Structure formats: C-alpha cells, structure tokens
Amino acid sequence: MDSFNFAGKKAFVRVDFNVPLDENFHITDDTRIRAAVPTLKKILKDGGSVIIGSHLGRPKGATDKFSLSHILPRVAELLGVDVQFADDCIGAETEAKAAALRPGEALLLENLRFYAEEEGKPRGLAEDATEEEIAAAKKAVKESQKEFTKKLASYADVYVNDAFGTAHRAHASTALIADHFDAAHKLFGYLLQNEITAVEKVMKDTERPFTAIMGGSKVSSKIEIIRNLLDKVDNLILAGGMTYTFAKAFDGKIGDSIVENDKLDLARELVEMAKTKGVNLVLATDAKIADSFSNDANTNFASVKEIPDGWEGLDIGPDAEKLFTEVIKNSKTILWNGPVGVFEFDNFDKGSRAVSNAIVEATQKGAFSLVGGGDSVACVNKFGHADQVSYVSTGGGALLEMIEGKVLPGIKAIRGY
Q1: Separation between Cα atoms, residue 37 and residue 276, nearest integer Å
Q2: Is 193:414 a contact under the CB 8 Å cutoff?
Q3: Among 150-159, 160-169, 369-378, 408-417, which stretch is predicted with the lowest mean pLDDT?
Q4: What is the pLDDT of residues 146-194, one digit of tens each?
Q5: Long-range residue pairs from 25-33, CB within 8 A, at least 24 positions apart, any chain
Q6: Which residues are part of the catalytic machinery?
Q7: Per-residue pLDDT tens for 282-313?
Q8: What's the rounded Cα separation, in Å, for the pair 337 and 390?
Q9: pLDDT computed for residue 124 by the predictor
Q10: From CA 331, how far away is CA 26, in angstroms rounded?
C-alpha cells in the first residue's frame, strides 16, 4: 500500500463492513468500518478513486434489512468525503457510476451477497431436490459466478483486499476477482496486511515461552486448532465450557455443566498428545459454580471434578485464576482465543478479566500478544484492554483457519501461495 501510487487509478476495495445494526438499522459497533479507513484514505489521498465492495449478513436475495445503504452515512463521515451509492453491485447503472468516478471520489456498492454468485452457492433448491438437480444448480451458479466476477473486476484498474474477516472464503470478491489483475495490480490493504503480520509473528516468528489460551464451549470446534498448536506452543491453556469435558473424561463429577459426552476419548487423547510433545497443558482445577445459567444465580466454588448435581461451572475459580495468570505473565508470545467463563454475565467475568489483566501485564514487559475471535475481542473491549495488547484481530473464522495452518483463499489469491 505504501509504495503503490493510486493517482488516476480506480481501485476495487473489498472490505468487511458486516457490522451489527439495531432494529432501526443504526450501527451499534463501527469497528470494522473504522479498520478499513486508512486503506481507503490512502487511495483517495493519492488521487485515486475507490469502488467499495462488501457483504452484510447472510441474505438469500435482495432485502432492505441487509442493504448497505444503512451504513452509507457513517462510511462517508469516517472518510470525510461524499460517498456515492450504487443500489446494485452490477448492472449498467452501476457500471456507469464506476466509470464516471473522478480522482478522490468513492462509490459504495450494494451488498455483494444479494447475488448467489458472490458465494458460488445455489439458492432456492427444493428440500426434496435430487442429487442431479443439486449438481446442476451448483454447476449453473459456478458458471454465472465467472461472469459476475468479471463484471466486478471491470470497474477498476487495481484490486485491494482489506477484508480479513472473509479471507478464508473463496468467494467472487474475496479471491476469484484477483485473477483478473496482474501481480503488480493486486495487493493487501493495511488491515489485511497487519492481520497477516500479526498471525505470522505468533505462529512463525515465535519468541518463547509461547502460550495459547483457548476458551469456548466445545472441544470439537477447536480440535484442529488444538492439534496444530500442540506442535508449536510451550503452554496450552484450555478453558471455558470444554473444561468439563476434560474433567468428566478423567472420572470427574461435573453436575449440570456443559459437556460433550462423545468427545471424552478425544479429551484423553489430547492430554496424552500434550505429554508426548512436551507441552504444558493447563486445565482449570476449580470453578465458580451456579445453580442456574443466570447472572443472579446462587454461586459457590468447587473442584471441577466435584460439582454437585443441579450446579454448573460458569467461570474458573481462584486456584485456576492463579495458575493461568502465572503461566501467562511468564510468556513472551501469547495467543488468546475464547473467554474462560460466561463473561457476558458480570458475576462470571472475573476469570476472563484476570486472564486479560495478565496478558496486559506480560505485554507491558515485552511479550507479543494477539487477541482474536469475537468473544475474546468482546472481552478486551469490555475490560478496556484493547489498546493494551499487541494486536486485536478483526477475524473470526479466518483467524482460526490461519492458526490451524490453512492457506486462506483471499491471501493465496494475491500472494500466489
């Protein structure tokens, strides 16, 4: 971005403006829009013009609920220029608007996912559709996707991908469009480049000890990440709801706590795998328990293996808190994905707050800390720590797939690998 001169050029910039809206279509969190502003401003400042493409939600066709017109005023306000709007992302009128753009001007396209061709998935298939009908529908949408992608690419001289949140999708505007530009005219925006740099610093340019904290309710949703991390980390803290699957796997009594009964063997396997690889696997020893899933529930503390019937673990206990924070404070590289308790309830956010505090302290002492995944980001925002860690990722699925070791289509489309 810094070395490319956009003067006199039109840039198609794929952003991730998939922001939350309230019932009156007001933006409740504009983080993703603000994150893309530096890239867009650089192009405009150079004397280029921008065609902004994004999705919003998961529409099954054009609908006002998911129209990007709702966010147009905020985009214009943040960019400091009048942003035009195309009420379709393709078509003669949109093509004319893009062609008429002058240096320093911006055009926001309507939701790309109003078209099935963006994702390349057929829509409207009957529930009882035969395999032949499904195959035919898939083939048809893939064929029309090529023309859709070609139209989007035709608006611009340069393609800029700044949408890390969708970089793991091989969609028309996130990956396929790059094929229509030569290597010198397709590049990462500032946000996407920063995301790649942060993840690669954690996973490839690692200063040790390296500690990963993985929270969340299910072992099954994190299994590939855990396996990949066991080849890279020195310490792996597994917490959140998955705690109780591990506790039960080793004959613990977990009361009414969340558990994956079909993953008990897997939990035992992961413990053995950690031992074999010499990884310090850290699990909570105690929990803050509640007699209902509520902020106002009665509470107590118990060993994770001695939770009474009628009670469930909703946060880590004081012993686990000390254990986790000690490991984190002595780390040089830290990855945090997933809270260690039901942090949305103030009564059960103490464990996640302690983890966040420890990460901040380690960062102040020189550690590199990467926080990613929606709930972890919500944690550091709730606790006021977002600007006190090294990097807060905007990606959910994309971040997790990079941690798993996968090559993301949106990155490969530009890098070539």
Answers
A1: 47
A2: no
A3: 369-378
A4: 999 999 999 999 999 999 989 999 999 999 999 999 999 999 999 999 9
A5: 25/70, 27/70, 27/71, 27/74, 30/74, 30/78, 31/394, 32/165, 32/394, 33/71, 33/74, 33/75, 33/78
A6: 32, 218, 374, 397
A7: 999 999 999 999 999 999 999 999 999 999 99
A8: 14
A9: 87
A10: 41
SS (H, E, C) the chain: CCCCCCCCCEEEEECCCCCCECCCCCECCCHHHHHHHHHHHHHHHHCCEEEEECCCCCCCCCCHHHCHHHHHHHHHHHHCCCEEEECCCCCHHHHHHHHCCCCCCEEEECCHHHCHHHHCCCCCCCCCCCHHHHHHHHHHHHHHHHHHHHHHHHCCCEEEECCHHHCCCCCCCCCHHHHHCCHHHEEECHHHHHHHHHHHHHHCCCCCCEEEEECCCCCHHHHHHHHHHCCCCCEEEECHHHHHHHHHHCCCEECCCCCCHHHHHHHHHHHHHHHHHCCEEEECCEEEEECCCCCCCCEEEEECCEECCCCEEEEECHHHHHHHHHHHHCCCEEEEECCCCCCCCHHHCHHHHHHHHHHHHHHHCCCEEEECCHHHHHHHHHCCCHHHCCEECCCCHHHHHHHCCCCCHHHHHHHCC
Pick from 64, 82, 55: which is nearest to 25 by CA? 64
Residues 335/212, Cβ–Cβ less than 8 Å: yes
Amino acid letter, residue 76:
A
Sign of the four-CA dihedral 291, 292, 296, 302 = positive
Cα–chain center distance at 281: 25
pLDDT bracket for residue 374 (50, 70, 90): low
Q: How far apart are CA 244 and CA 359, in angstroms?
A: 24
In the predicted structure, residue 25 carries a pLDDT above the cut 80:
yes
Q: C-alpha angle with apex 182: 181 to 188, nearest 5 degrees? A: 75
The C-alpha atoms of residue 232 and residue 203 are separated, in whole angstroms, by 7
pTM: 0.87
Peptide bond into 209 cis (omega under 30): yes
- For the record, the structure tokens of 339 come out as 């809270």
* Cα 164 to Cα 158: distance, rounded to the nearest angstrom: 18
Closest of 370, 358, 213 to residue 281, by C-alpha: 213
Main-chain dihedrals φ then ψ at residue 157, nearest 5 degrees: -95, -20
